[in-house]
Every structure is written in structure tokens, then in C-alpha cells.
Design a protein that fits this description.
- By secondary structure, this protein is mostly beta strands.
- The chain is 11% helix and 51% strand.
- The protein has 2 helices and 17 strands.
- The strands form 4 sheets. The chain has a 6-stranded mixed sheet. A 6-stranded mixed sheet has the order 11-10-9-14-13-12.
- A hairpin with a 5-residue loop joins strand 13 (118-123) and strand 14 (129-132).
- It is elongated.
- The N and C termini lie far apart (51 Å).
Length: 169
């Protein structure tokens, strides 16, 4: 079998691995929490998302689908270097991956249907995403400045020479 996203050939498509990542980014195998961070990091190293939005653990020898309730990662810490347009904003995820906000890794907001609240996310490697924790988003808002575009005011933040939208004012 050939994976159309990567053009890799797999010996064994295993179907569903019965692994789930819940909304709080806790991993479960057959309903039992996976508590060893080293195991979660290992699984994360082979986690991919296809163009249909399905999540897969892909090794050179097998491929199996897993369930992800929202996104696989949380951005738990924020680090800033510099200021103004050239400032660099970096995030640390719950698997200790560093994500550098900028042209390669976007920040985006998704509106909750029931409340209209905007939930912030960042793109990470292999088409995956991380949701910013509330405290990290508040830190990001503190870094924000008011900008105006066509008479509309919005809050934004610079990182690596790119302006990121944080919300309308």
C-alpha cells in the first residue's frame, strides 16, 4: 500500500490503533491514560495528519489511525526575544517541542460556535497544531499592540517580521 501524502510504501496498514488524544491533550490507549512522557514523545515523533484531517501514527513498517478530539498539543509556555517588528516569539508545547511563531508557523483563531469565544492555535511540524493555554494567550495579548486597517482597529503582535492578528477591538 502507498501513502498518497508521502509516497511511502507500508508493509502493514493496521487500521485503528485505539489511541485517543482528548481535548486537554492527554493520550489514552484502550481508554487507559498514557502517563509516561517519554512514550508520548515517541508516539508524537511519528504522528501525522492527512489531507482529510485524519491522524496517523506512521513508522517505516506500519501505519495506524488514532483519534484526536481537538489538536494533539498544547502550547504551555511563551518566550520572547527582542521587540517591535523583529521580536521573536517562541512557544514550548506539552511534549517540549519549541515552535517559533513566524512565517513558517502561523497563529490562527478558531471561534467556538456556542460562545463565539476565539480559541488561539499555532501550527507545528507535519501539519499538526497546538492550542495555546489560556495563560499563554494572555501573555501574548499583553505583548500585543493596537493596529488599524481600513478604519478597523485590531490587536496584533509581531514575530519574525510578521504581524499576527489577535482580535478586533
Amino acid at each position: 500500500m502507498i501513502d498518497t501524502n508521502t509516497n511511502k510504501t507500508f508493509e502493514n496498514i493496521c487500521g485503528d490503533f485505539n489511541i485517543r488524544i482528548d481535548r486537554e491533550c492527554c493520550w489514552y490507549y484502550q481508554g487507559t491514560p498514557i502517563t509516561r512522557k517519554s512514550m508520548i514523545k515517541l508516539f508524537s515523533s511519528v504522528l501525522n495528519k492527512d489531507s482529510n484531517g485524519d491522524y496517523w501514527l506512521i513508522t517505516p513498517f506500519e501505519k495506524g489511525r488514532i483519534q484526536v478530539d481537538d489538536v494533539p498539543y498544547l502550547a504551555e509556555e511563551l518566550y520572547v526575544k527582542g521587540k517591535d517588528r523583529s521580536q521573536e516569539i517562541n512557544f514550548r508545547t506539552n511534549i517540549d517541542e519549541e515552535v517559533c511563531l513566524g512565517p513558517d508557523f502561523d497563529l490562527w483563531l478558531k471561534s467556538k460556535n456556542d460562545t463565539g469565544e476565539s480559541i488561539p492555535y499555532i501550527n507545528t511540524a507535519r501539519g499538526l497544531s497546538a492550542r495555546l493555554t489560556r495563560s499563554v494567550f494572555y501573555q501574548l495579548v499583553d505583548l500585543g499592540k493596537v493596529f488599524e486597517d481600513k478604519g478597523n482597529a485590531f490587536l496584533g503582535v509581531w514575530s519574525r517580521e510578521k504581524l499576527f492578528f489577535l482580535g478586533n477591538i
